[in-house]
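Show me any protein, fold above all:
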Amino acid sequence: MAEAQVPKDDQKIKDALAEKALGNDAYQKKEFDKAIEHYDKAMELNPDEMSFLTNRSAVKFEMNDLDGAIADCEEAIKQNKERGLHTDFKIIARAHARIGNAYVKKGELSNAIGAYENSLLEAHDDKVYTSLRETKKRKVEEEERAYMDPEKSQDERKAGNEFFKIGKYPEAIQKYTEAIRRNPDDPAPYSNRAAAYMKLGEFPFALRDCEKCLELDPKYTKAYSRKGSIHFFMKEYHKSLEAYKTALEMDPNNRDLRMDYQRVMATIQQTANSDEVDEEQVKKAMADPEIQKILSDPGVTQVLKEMSEKPEYAQKALEDPVMADKIKKLIAAGVVRVASR
């Protein structure tokens, strides 16, 4: 009895799949030229199967033939659409993703982002989503680096200073912000912008800029001075005192700094001796981690207890420099009062 004959087209499909398997094996062994030969034969046998094209694109990608990899993926996408081949959407999604990967390798990030987005429209994939997010982030970073220009930064800063002089503080802030974008490693525009924010009463923003300025240049005296003023206006006198103290250590002959330091000391003394309690100041101080740490010290707790029972004990407690520093900080923060009864 004669064997049943396999239809010619079915045989070609089987042969094509066999060539694909050989190509996959060669790919795993990194025998890339051989893999391409097998995928080419598979495509000749069955030109309707787009996975042969996308597999070949993977080989070209590994060979760093990025344009070739992109061309194969684009051809697979094009043929599937124009010929209505109904290729598995996951294969088409992978083709778009590989185009994205190739464009990333070429440094063409906008094209890569478009390819990743097209891939996710076909099928969601966590890896592709992560690649899209990272590529977008990298693109922003590269654009920011390309935007940097120290000379233009100085021009923007000078323009900000002119606006500041005539009281146009929002306009000054815009210019200082532009100066920072042009040169984010320069501490000066942060200090300038802090001054402008202070004029508008935006103390948290001003404080943030002072801290960034000092992060870039820990010896930027003017930033410490402004920080001292900000904390003073926010009634955080213990922090204000520390800022002015640090500034004076750097510039001990600065008369303005010394006057500001004395102003804070006088305010602390006045507040400590007052019968009125500033609830807002105390609430803010109690939320300060440094103050919380001091208050949790058993030694401090004992001293405060004895001071409340015997006010004359305060002088004795302050003879210990470590304890004195803690108690003074609590007094400056408005947590401890020394008003006479």
Observations:
- The domain at 48-147 is CATH 1.25.40.10 (Serine Threonine Protein Phosphatase 5, Tetratricopeptide repeat).
- The chain is about 75% helix and 0% strand.
